[in-house]
Every structure is written in C-alpha cells, then in structure tokens.
Amino acid sequence: MTGVQLPVAEGVRLLDRSQAERDAEFAALFDRHYAPMCRLAYVILGDAGQAEEIVMEAMLKTFSGWGRIRDMERIDAYVRRAVVNQCRSKIRRKVIENRVNRVIHHRDETKAPDWEPERHETSRLVWEAVKTLPERQRACVVLRYFNDLPEAEIAQTLDCSVGTVKSQLSKARAKLEIALQQSWKG
After folding, report:
1. 137 and 97: one domain?
2. Burial class (CB in 10 A: 0-12, 13-18, 19+), 137
3. Are 89 and 45 spatial neighbours (Cβ–Cβ below 8 Å)?
4. Exposure of 111 by Cβ count < 10 A (0-12 exposed, 13-18 middle, 19+ buried)?
C-alpha cells in the first residue's frame, strides 16, 4: 500500500518542481530581456510608456503560452517577435484612432533620447529622420542597425521574406540619405 502512495507523492513533487523550474526560467528570461525589449519597442514606437506596456504584454503572452513553446533555444527570437508584433499592432491601432479622431487627437510628438548636443548632433538628426520612415521600414532599420540582427532574422521577426527586408532597408536608406542631406544643408 505504501508503494502505491509513493509514486503519487513523487508525481506531485515533480509537478511542483516543474512549475518552480518554469517560474525560475521565466524570471530569468524576464530579467535578461526586459530592458533590451523596452529599448527596441521605444525605438519603434517613440514612447517610453507605451514601450513598457508593449513589453509587459508580450511577456505576459509568452508566460501564458510557455507550455506551447517548442524550441527553448529560440526563446530570444520568440520574445523579440512578440514585441515587434505588439508594436506593429499598436501602430495600426493608433493610425485608426487618428483617422477617426483627427480633430481631437493629434499624433503625440515623440521625445528623442537625451543627447549631448555637441557630441551627438548627428545621432539626433538620424533619430529624427528614422522617426519619419514608414512603419515597416522603421522596424527593419531598428532591427538591423539598432539590434544588429542579420537580414534572415529580421525577416523571421517581421514574418516576411529576406528579399522584402533587403528592399525595405534599401528604400529606408535612400529616404534617410535624402532627409539627412536636407538636414545638414538646412
């Protein structure tokens, strides 16, 4: 009779340990990725508050779907994609809100990161130019040059082909070149 109870007790401990391990793994994931994902979302959205909200939402979805994640080695890409997708959804919702409430709501001016004027004028000008890019081009530029991701990983994150990423980066670079030439002349 004690032999029958022992596996049940062990099974409960295994279940408890599994939840504890999951919680520890997720806590480590959160600690490791929260700040970098907030920076990524901020660069895409231009609003620190919305960026934190997006990252928390992406982390919550990651936690609730933890059992469905097939490849834990790729969890970094999973979280990054979740954040980028949340940002894209937020931008789409914002466009719709602006269309509906055009008179009442104006697009908030995004505040650039604090720069030392003499030392970082070029960076400020680049930041201002990047903010004017269309959503998809801006996301490609941020992922390529801010996060230093290869084109294949950007394509996976944005759920598009590598050719699309290359095309979007090319168009973005051309627009940035024109915008920056005008800034420096003007």
Report:
1. no
2. buried
3. no
4. exposed
3-class SS at 134?
coil
State the Cα–Cα distance between residues 133 and 159, nearest whole angstrom: 19
**CB of 172 closer than 8 Å to CB of 140:** yes
For 113-148, the pLDDT digits (tens) are 554 555 567 777 888 888 899 989 999 998 998 888
Q: Are 44 and 120 in contact (CB under 8 A)?
A: no
Q: Looking at the structure, do residues 147 and 55 belong to the same domain, yes or no?
A: no
pTM tops 0.70: no
**CATH number of the CATH domain containing 59:** 1.10.1740
Mean pLDDT for 68-78 is 79
Tell me which of 91, 109, 127 is where a domain ends. 109
Q: Total structural domains in the chain?
A: 2
Residue range of the domain that includes 140: 112-186
